[in-house]
Amino acid sequence: MFRRNRRFVMARLAPWVACIALAAAAGARADEPADPPGRVARVNLAVGAVSLQPAGAESWVSDVLNRPLTNGDKLWVDQGSRAELHIGSAAVRLGEETGISVLNVDDRTVQLKLSAGTLQIRVRGLDPEQTFEIATPTASVAVLRPGDYRLEVADSGFLARLAVAQGQVAVTDQGHEATVGAGQLAEFTGTSVADAEIRALPPDDAFDQWVADRDRREDLSVASQYVSPAVTGAEDLDDYGTWEIADDYGPVWMPAVASGWAPYRNGHWGWIAPWGWTWIDDAPWGFAPFHYGRWVFFRGNWGWAPGPRRYAPVYAPALVGWVGGAPAAGGVRAPPVGWFPLGWNEVYVPAYRVSNDYVRSVNVTNTHATSAVINNYISNNLTIIDRDHGRHGVGGSGGQHYANFTVPGAVTATSRTAFTTAQPVASHLARLPQETLAGAPLGTGAPAIAPTTGSLGRPAATIPRAAPQIWTRPVIARTPPPPPPPSFEAQRYAVAANGGLPVAFRGFASAPAARGATPQPSRARADVVQVSPGSTPPRARGDRPVASRTAPASVTPPQQPAPRPVPDSRLPAQA
User: Fold this and answer.
1) What DSSP state is assigned to residue 231?
2) CA distance 421 to 271
3) Which long-range contacts (CB under 8 A, 24 or more apart) does 95-100 make?
4) Which of helix, strand or coil describes residue 150?
5) Minimal CA–CA distance to 487: which of 24, 7, 20, 26?
6) Long-range contacts made by residues 28-32, C-beta under 8 angstroms, separation at least 24?
7) 485, 71 in Cβ contact below 8 A?
8) Choice among 67-71, 96-100, 335-339 with the minimum mean pLDDT
9) What stretches of 162-281 show up as alpha helix (H) in DSSP?
């Protein structure tokens, strides 16, 4: 019965898998290969009931803390609750009964959809080529300058109020554009930006006071002296550890943890496209040290060494080496899945398909490795090179030495069932015999294991009380967002058809390999109405009262992501 049902399901999904494979192939031809974004969002605080609907999924999950948020994810903050998330140095705070969707987060763009409720944004830095935009049902709000902003969308779906404590924004509807400057409150009483009434900022309410407390905490951060401001999650390190300066490593953050603790043990694995298997840590500080930098065993304890502070780092799903990974065959029970933290300057090559430029960037910005170190790794680990289909991190058979692999207690393992169903690793530990460890192949690419529905996370205790229609409300966006991701069911069957390796869906791609190529238009999506296709935000003007004008008729294509910074001694192109 099970086999028959499985054949039926596969037959029903076959057209979807074929479409996804064709779309992925078409995207690969357009930008060969399609690299994932170098940035993600992260929920670092959830007070009360906060739920997440992962991209392409139908259900909601409760695993929100430290989960990377990317295109297509939805977040709901229920009555009497609050949440905070970070995207690099930018902070986004959500009041009660607030729902947002991630339309696009990549190297140059942050584009959120505010469906209902209250949103406060603090943008610390904004380069000329970067975009930070909030799409609402009645207008697009594009940040023109670093500053503090608060938006409110009424229950009816209309943008109600926009407060600018510092900075400047452009507000655009389908026919008009206006600017709102520092110290101004714009109240939208009609359906047009031209109907806005400008007032002075009102006294702070409880939400404003909470936001101010969060800002003060970040302003006093010691970690900012040692970590790039673009490292998401660095603001949480100060409360849970101390910094030391090591002769061999430079600044090292030492977490206050129990004896016997090891990195990548207290948390679970989840599947997040387009990266695939992603570590989600339980600790309140557990984001930056598991997606950037490297772990070192220093003076008998674990410490985290961040990458060079001068570079904007590239996010990685988990900076670990993997033990074994060969699937079982012939009905034999699958062996446990094992891993260990990558050490100082050890090269990470992922399992998801990427370009040479990505391999350089994800290592150079997170370590102090030189071109010679990376070249030596590649020359001794030729199995990582797939010249026809990009790079996959299955290296290690060429004699690569991993420092942390030999540290007692550094290797962690769990069963395949626990691995694929987001079970807490610490309570589902598996033993890898010494003889297995001695002869097992090592590599940095996650094992080729397809996700299950359980890989999304634990189901939410209660279904969010938000009306379903708020998620499908049309919104106005200045910049065309990428296509929405396919359903999770279609994603996982496509991954299974790809031998358990991640599939590069074009909607997620930051595509540094395609810089300079003509941007491809997004396919139609029901939840977005563009002001004018491809229109770009105006340049910042001097702070002054709102002045509206007709939206531009001519358009320009959206810019591609900025090149990630790399050292002068970068790898040669042929490496």
Assistant:
1) S
2) 9
3) 95/119, 95/120, 95/207, 96/48, 97/466, 99/74, 99/75, 99/464, 99/466, 99/470, 99/471, 100/74, 100/75
4) strand
5) 20
6) 28/504, 30/506, 30/514, 30/517, 30/520, 31/509, 31/511, 31/513, 31/514, 31/517, 32/355, 32/390, 32/513
7) yes
8) 335-339
9) 206-219
Helix then strand count (H, E) for the chain reads 8, 31
Gap between the Cα atoms of 473 and 480, Å rounded: 16
Contact 473, 96 (CB under 8 A): no
Q: How far is CA 248 from CA 234, 278, 289, 340, in A?
A: 22, 29, 18, 21
Question: Tell me, what's the pLDDT at 537?
Answer: 53
Contact indicator for 510, 560 with CB cutoff of 8 Å: no
Closest residue by Cα to residue 296 from 251, 335, 343, 337: 343
Q: What angle do CA 42, 465, 490 make, to 5 degrees?
A: 60
What does the pLDDT look like over 322-366, one tens digit per residue?
Answer: 986 555 444 445 788 999 999 998 999 888 888 878 888 899 899
Q: Which residue has the higher pLDDT, 439 or 491?
A: 491
Q: Is the pLDDT of residue 25 over 80?
A: no
Q: How far apart are CA 434 and CA 408, in angstroms?
A: 12
User: What is the torsional sign of CA 491, 492, 493, 495?
Assistant: positive
- Here the tokens at position 413 are 């393992």
Q: What is the pLDDT of residues 202-259, one digit of tens each?
A: 999 999 999 999 999 999 989 999 999 899 999 899 999 999 999 999 999 999 999 9
Do the beta carbons of residue 181 and residue 197 sit within 8 Å?
A: no
DSSP E strand stretches across 464-527 = 475-477
Cα separation values, 470 from 57, 136, 158, Å? 17, 11, 11
